[in-house]
Write a structure and sequence with these properties.
The complex is a heterodimer.
Chain A: E1 3-8, H1 9-19, E2 24-27, H2 34-43, H3 45-48, E3 52-55, H4 59-71, E4 76-80, H5 82-97, E5 102-108, H6 124-128, E6 139-141, H7 146-163, E7 166-172, H8 173-177, E8 179-184, E9 210-211, H9 218-238, E10 242-245, E11 252-255, H10 258-273, E12 278-283, E13 285-287, H11 291-300, E14 303-307, H12 314-322, E15 327-331, H13 341-353
Helix pairs in contact in A: 1-2, 1-7, 4-5, 10-13, 11-12
Chain B: H1 37-50, E1 57-61, E2 76-79, H2 85-95, E3 100-106, H3 107-113, H4 115-124, E4 129-134, E5 137-138, E6 144-145, H5 164-167, H6 173-178, E7 183-190, H7 194-213, E8 217-223, H8 227-230, H9 234-248, E9 252-256, E10 259-260
Parallel strand pairs in B: 1-2, 1-3, 3-4, 4-8, 7-8
Antiparallel strand pairs in B: 5-6, 7-9, 9-10
Helix pairs in contact in B: 1-7, 3-4
Classes of the chains: A alpha/beta, B alpha/beta.
Chain lengths: ~350, ~260
């Protein structure tokens, strides 16, 4: 039976993971996501479901524990915030290169460097363009509520296993820290059977399983690259998720995800009170990106404003989708500042309508 | 490889005195002639066969000369990023405590880039086995200075010898790890003579058997040569190893059954 609770976004991730039948979590404390590890340690999931929870010595070790666990065909996840996610990039590249499923949560804070502990959306490029070395992509989910924080845990695991590819929940410090009501799914059992590729001990009469991202033969390595690229095209075909708000009669469009999308809903309302017909498109998947929908909207509206708590990162994907059909601009605050609904309307008026 | 002709009058079942363990594959190893890796692989494979744990083993390979170990050992294996094998092994063992989990790492992998993962896996008392091959050099990348390169020893990045004032001191990771309460068995072995091979094999077996006791991490260091990197013949390399490496990295047990050896 579903259960209604009041929880922080970070806690919702942790509880949803236990209920999704996760086998293990490996993490390292960093603000503003430490509640994930704290909640898991307090909840004793090893008693509830047998789930392993371990505080690693570093983010580097944590992601490599995820690699080891994922290679056993287990449902494993980690979480961190921006500087910690940068440290995990080596491991994420190996996980993608070994075609392993796992879930990584990035509760983004402002950067670069140590930056700030306040929320930001400045890790979009890192999340959606690969992040580590080599040609690979993550499945990137962008929740904009505590409910979606919980829901995207199961979705992330499902997609990761479907495509044998790491999935990332790209959220931010605001959604991680804020409390909302959340409907939690009932407890799912942990897996008892594991994928045939998993390293669980060589079965008598069968070939051994090897998990590696290495192939010294360039022809084979190219073949492998083409194979994973094909997988990413499949994701683009089948896994795009987004929501629209007041788009039917819209003459202008805001595109925003996560915390920015919540604020943009208010901006749409304020703009419409002023007689400006504005709609909002909220990508729930940042990779695959809703290219087709944005291209369609570009035929309907006079201009598009990308609203992100960054210097303008998603706006590049919007421009690639729009292909010059209408004007595309960006508005966003940085360094942990969250824009106001009014600022967004003013930016729309100045950069898109009047510009 | 040329096909070898077999004299069928001699190669009869009743005449066989040695048989390659079935846990080694038939893949031709890429190691330089005279290198210790092949012997170390074989001993691990023989122990796995003798303990009948082939289907219960998960091995983690490093980055370095032995990166392709998964081609030679017929058990399930994972290939880790450079230095991270103990982190992978930690997760594997915690998720499947009934399995036998081991890492196989060189000195660059274990004692330089993977220092943190090694120390913390040992200190947590992870119930795994680490095989540590120390040849005092980065072999795969072409003979650069390693954390274990001896003082005044030449390498491609210490061409005039390791100047400890400038380049720092060699790191005795095995001595360091033995101090930690999480380790149960720490020993240093070699595989350059039949006598040493027999001793090393016993140590490897003990290190695997310890996993059943659940009392912490076992580490077997094998001091080995790198004749290519040291720019010597295999025989010279072994002699040089005995004269120079062994005094700095003394053979024998450092910790047995959780107790430091005096």
């Amino acid at each position: 039976m579903k259960e209604l609770k009041l929880m922080k976004g970070n806690e919702a991730i942790a509880e949803a993971a236990i209920r999704a039948g996760a086998d293990a979590y490996f993490g390292y404390p960093i603000t503003p996501q430490s509640e994930v590890l704290e909640y898991l340690m307090a909840e004793k999931p090893h008693e509830r479901t047998g789930m392993v929870v371990l505080q690693a010595e570093s983010e580097v070790a944590a992601i490599n524990m995820v690699y080891g666990g994922a290679a056993c065909g287990r449902k494993v996840f980690t979480s961190s915030s921006s500087p910690g996610i940068s440290l995990k990039q080596e491991g994420i590249s190996y996980i993608a290169g070994s075609e392993l499923p796992c879930l990584i949560v990035n509760v983004v804070r402002g950067g670069p460097g140590l930056g700030t502990i306040q929320p930001s959306q400045s890790d979009y490029f890192q999340a959606t363009k690969g992040g580590g070395h080599g040609d690979y992509r993550l499945i990137v989910l962008a929740p904009s509520s505590v409910q979606e924080m919980a829901d995207f845990v199961k979705l992330g695991f499902d997609l990761a296993f479907k495509y044998r590819n790491p999935a990332m929940i790209l959220t931010d410090g605001a959604i991680g820290q804020m409390m909302e009501k959340v409907w939690l799914e009932e407890q799912q059992p942990r897996m008892t059977e594991f994928p045939e590729w998993a390293t669980t001990g060589k079965k008598p009469g069968k070939e051994r399983n090897i998990i590696t991202s290495l192939d010294l033969d360039s022809a084979m390595q190219e073949k492998f690259n083409l194979k994973i690229q094909e997988k990413y095209r499949e994701m683009e075909e089948n896994e795009v998720r987004y929501e629209t708000f007041e788009c039917d009669d819209a003459e202008y469009l805001l595109v925003a995800y996560g915390t920015s999308a919540r604020i943009c809903q208010k901006s749409v309302q304020l703009a419409r009170e002023k007689g400006i017909k504005v709609g909002l498109l909220r990508p729930q998947t940042l990779f695959p990106f809703p290219k087709k929908k944005i291209s369609e909207m570009a035929s309907q509206v006079k201009g598009i404003l990308s609203v992100e708590m960054s210097a303008g990162q998603m706006v590049e994907d919007i421009k690639l989708s729009v292909e010059g059909k209408v004007k595309v601009g960006h508005f966003g605050r940085m360094g942990g500042i969250i824009h106001s609904a009014e600022e967004i309307v003013t930016a729309l008026e100045q950069k898109i309508i009047g510009g | 490889m040329a096909e070898q002709t077999v004299n069928k009058d001699i190669a009869k079942e009743e005449n066989l005195v040695f048989k390659k363990t079935s846990v080694l594959t038939d893949k031709v190893m890429h190691y330089c002639p005279g290198c210790g890796h092949g012997t170390a692989h074989r001993l691990i494979a023989e122990v796995i066969e003798e303990m009948n744990i082939q289907s219960e083993c998960i091995g983690i390979t490093p980055v370095g000369c032995s990166v392709l170990m998964y081609n030679y050992l017929d058990v399930d294996m994972q290939e880790a990023a450079h230095g991270r094998a103990p982190a992978l092994a930690t997760a594997v063992k915690r998720l499947m405590p009934e399995k036998f989990v081991f890492t196989y790492q060189g000195d660059g992998d274990l004692a330089a880039i993977g220092t943190a993962e090694t120390i913390h896996a040992a200190n947590r008392g992870e119930n795994i086995t680490i095989f540590f091959i120390n040849n005092g050099i980065y072999g795969m990348t072409g003979g650069q200075m390693a954390p274990t390169t001896l003082p005044n020893m030449k390498s491609s990045t210490s061409p005039y010898g390791r100047d400890v004032k400038m380049m720092g001191n060699p790191l005795k990771m095995t001595e360091l790890v033995a101090q930690l309460p999480g380790t149960y068995y720490v020993t240093r072995q070699a595989v350059h003579t039949p006598k040493d091979v027999r001793k090393a094999k016993k140590a490897i077996r003990k290190a695997f058997e310890n996993q059943k006791l659940e009392r912490g991490l076992s580490l077997v260091e094998i001091v080995s040569n790198c004749n290519s990197g040291w720019k010597m013949t295999p025989l010279q390399a072994n002699e040089w190893m005995v004269e120079n490496m062994f005094p700095f990295y003394p053979m024998g047990d450092l910790k047995v059954d959780g107790e430091m050896v005096k």
